[in-house]
TrEMBL record:
Family annotation (Gene3D superfamilies): Hypothetical protein af1432
Entry-linked SUPFAM superfamilies: HD-domain/PDEase-like
Boundaries of every HD domain copy: 29-116
Endpoints of the signal sequence: none
Pfam families: HD
Protein name: HD domain-containing protein
Highest taxon listed in the record's lineage: Bacteria
InterPro entries for the chain: HD_domain (IPR006674)
Length: 193
């Protein structure tokens, strides 16, 4: 891969970027983009770019839209992962994406924060999960040299808590937004409700 910062183009990619930038804060949008780059770099490092199940357009859609549930379109009627998956599915359906591919993206988004589950699902869910948590610092398999162009293009302050604060804000919208044992419920508990 020559340029690690190149992104897919076309109607779906453009629509995913547009909804991302229109509905979430800049820090979350940049986290979503870093998640895509790290997911693709993970696929490259693990030799998965030529796997029959690898679809860069769907990976872009899943990673870029994985936190739509923390944006202005989410009502707090479900956990943020599910609301984001529903919003992404609606956008993909509006662009004529086949139902099977919509289901794969929905699953990848809905399970992206499910430690111990996401990495056992299909390739799209696995890579989305790896990309998201590589950006969060949980996974360190990607070398600093591979990560460097992404981190330089989209720097993240070490003390940035915008993602956690957005999850807490969403969790406070309704009890359904922070079901027991979810990341949202835990962050809300740590914040004192």
């Amino acid at each position: 891969m020559n340029d690690p910062l190149v992104v897919p183009t076309g109607g779906i990619a453009d629509a995913a970027l547009a909804i991302l930038h229109k509905t979430v804060d800049k820090q979350i949008a940049e986290h979503s983009l870093r998640s895509f780059y790290f997911a693709r770099l993970t696929a490259q490092q693990e030799g998965l770019l030529t796997d029959a199940a690898y679809d860069e357009g769907l990976l872009f859609a899943a990673t870029v839209m994985h936190d739509l549930g923390l944006g202005t379109l989410a009502g707090g009627n479900a956990r943020f992962e599910v609301e984001g998956a529903d919003l992404a599915a609606t956008l993909l359906a509006e662009h004529g994406v086949p139902d099977g591919d919509i289901s794969r993206v929905w699953e990848a988004i809905a399970l992206h924060s499910s430690l111990g589950l996401a990495d056992r699902m299909g390739l799209l869910t696995y890579l989305t999960h790896k990309g998201v948590f590589t950006d969060g610092g949980r996974f360190t398999e990607l070398s600093p040299e591979l990560q460097e162009p992404v981190r330089l293009a989209y720097p993240r302050s070490p003390d940035d808590r915008s993602l956690q604060m957005a999850i807490i804000k969403h969790a406070r919208k309704s009890p359904k937004a922070a079901p027991p044992f979810s990341i949202a419920a835990e962050l809300l508990r740590q914040a004192g409700g």
